[in-house]
Prior knowledge:
This protein is an all-alpha fold and 204 residues long. The protein has a domain of 114 residues. The protein contains three helices and two strands; from the N terminus they run ααββα. A two-stranded antiparallel ribbon has the order 1-2. The termini are far apart. Pfam families: TMF_DNA_bd. It comes from Prunus dulcis.
Amino acid sequence: MVGSxxxxxxxxxxxxxxxxxxxxxxxxxxxxxxxxIEQRKSNDAEVExxxxxxxxxxxxxxxxxxxxxxxxxxxxxxxxxxxxxxALLKEKDEIINQVMAEGEELSKKQAAQEGQIRxxxxxxxxxxxxxxGLITKLQDGKxxxxxxxxxxxxxxxxGYISPYFITNQNNQKCExxxxxxxxxxxxxxxxxxxVKVLELVLQL
Length: 204
């Protein structure tokens, strides 16, 4: 009896799951279990379809993201090139402005130098005119060589007024080196006329 119970128990459970018209080895289309299985298969197919659609959409989005990223990188490189070009142009403009400023400064200096050159040329012309007062002295030499000594200075037509001007008693000449000369428009009759000038000379 124990063995028969163990055999009948699964059979009874199987019979309970089946309808009264279903045998052990047969089934009808109206079986609830088959409907559940078919529904699950249908759900699995839908899930698989959705999964495939999802993968396709993800792949499409990945391609779009890749294309957009590539386009962004290209635009960024172009923008960097434009930025570099703009920076280079700005640097060139600054260099041009500096060169132009230096050119203007040099032009001002050149104009000032030309003015100084004109003044120097005028002084040279005056000096050439004053060369008429050049004093040359020729003396017999004791050697076989000829020497030329040129002395630039001022010639006084009337000579010195006082013998106290004589510095060389043998030749009766007044020779001064780097003297301070006072030129006055009138005759100096008193020392008081040149006291202030002499005081300034003493301060030098």
